[in-house]
Specification:
Its main location: cytoplasm. The protein is α/β, with parallel strands linked by helices. It is built from 10 helices and 14 strands.
């Protein structure tokens, strides 16, 4: 396999086991658990150059590079992370972690529950952003990292980055919150609920214990992904990429797929259902819904953010209607009123919410400039 000069190249996941029980915000307890993670670059002698990358809903620990057994398995943020890239692994030691409840190797509903010897399935406890951050902090302890140079993420990953600056204020020098919000809007919660109902109403879901039946709730997963994917794109992006183009050049007057946008959504749904776990989808969207740092402060976000000590980089994208620039600005002003150093970038992009994953030159230039100013 040939890789470019700026590619990390072949990477391999690692596994950390934790025997100390983890108490969860829901009241549940994980008696023991595994976290799967990858690292890129070299941790320096003082462990001051570590950067944690938090993933979004369907992301994983595989942030950059490729796996030896699958050269097509390029990390989901490979365009950002690597030698000479905006998050430069010649300078920083980068960590990607698969969150608890995930389906990429960390302990989740697909894992075997020690007490029963069966997959956790419906018995896996609800996990929250706060639980993920607590488990990530334990991994940092294991790796000898007392303070991160930066914690960053996009979308749900950005919420984790924000929570790191609140729960572990002394352990984060820079919080980088991309295409995110301090909490979901009612509209976003509504989209998540419709997606969950698609899964819950699938007859092969079996109450979350479909593993024991040897089936996958494919129909529900497909519909959930199709709905979600619509919210990740902008109207302009869909119009430019698909418009009203017909697959067959004329109307078929049937129940099949007529338009290119329909074909695209079917493709995305089928692809997603082939690798993602339905229970993980349910858990992760609920974690999104529950996240609200101001909840314990009677809705006062400025009071909630007063715990933070980090410097902040916050970025939004003009056509992102799921997490609009106005939602990022909800963070900017309370942080500034708390006397914190905040850099805010509102970037022009036609790609909607997915913009944070793309190789946009202005976006990456802003990220590069910020990382260049982080001292290690």
């Amino acid at each position: 396999m040939t890789t470019s000069a700026s590619s990390i190249g072949i990477v391999a996941p690692q596994r950390a086991h934790f025997d100390t029980p983890l108490s969860l915000k829901s009241g549940g307890v994980l008696p023991a658990y595994d976290l799967v993670y990858e690292t890129y670059g070299t941790l320096n002698a003082t462990a001051s150059n570590a950067v944690l990358v938090c993933h979004a809903l369907s992301g994983s620990h595989h942030v950059a590079g490729v796996h030896a057994d699958n050269p097509k398995s390029v990390g989901w943020w490979d365009n950002l992370v690597g030698p000479g890239k905006p998050l430069d692994t010649d300078k920083f030691f980068v960590i990607g972690v698969n969150n608890l409840g995930g389906c990429y190797g960390s302990t989740g509903p697909m894992s075997i529950e020690p007490a029963s010897g069966k997959p956790w399935g419906s018995r896996f406890p609800f996990v929250t952003v706060e639980d993920w951050v607590d488990s990530q902090a334990r991994l940092a302890d294991l790796l000898g990292i007392q303070q991160f140079a930066a914690v960053l993420g996009g979308s749900l990953g950005g919420m984790q980055a924000l929570d790191w600056t609140l729960r572990y204020a002394d352990r984060v020098r820079h919080g980088m919150v991309i295409a995110a919000a301090p909490k979901l809007s009612a509209e976003n919660i509504a989209f998540n609920e419709v997606a969950r109902q698609a899964i819950l109403s699938d007859p092969t879901f079996h109450g979350g214990d479909y593993y024991e039946y040897g089936v996958v709730p494919v129909s529900g997963l497909r519909l959930a992904r199709m709905l979600g994917h619509i919210t990740y794109l902008s109207d302009d992006a869909m119009a430019e990429k698909f418009g009203r183009r017909l697959r067959h050049g004329e109307h078929q007057f049937g129940r099949g797929v007529d338009f290119e946008i329909e074909s695209y959504l079917h493709y995305q749904g089928d692809k997603f259902a082939g690798f993602f776990d339905a229970n993980t989808y349910l858990l992760t969207t609920k974690a999104l819904d529950y996240f609200d740092p101001a909840y314990a402060y009677d809705g006062n976000l400025q009071a909630a953010l007063a715990r933070a000590k980090a410097k902040f980089f916050i970025a939004s994208f003009t056509t992102d209607w799921r997490f609009s620039p106005a939602r990022s600005q909800e963070l900017v002003f309370p942080l500034m009123h708390n006397g914190l150093d905040v850099t805010y970038a509102e970037l022009d992009s036609a790609a909607g919410h997915d913009s944070f994953l793309l190789d946009d030159p202005h976006y990456h230039a802003a990220m590069r400039a910020y990382f260049n100013n982080i001292e290690v």
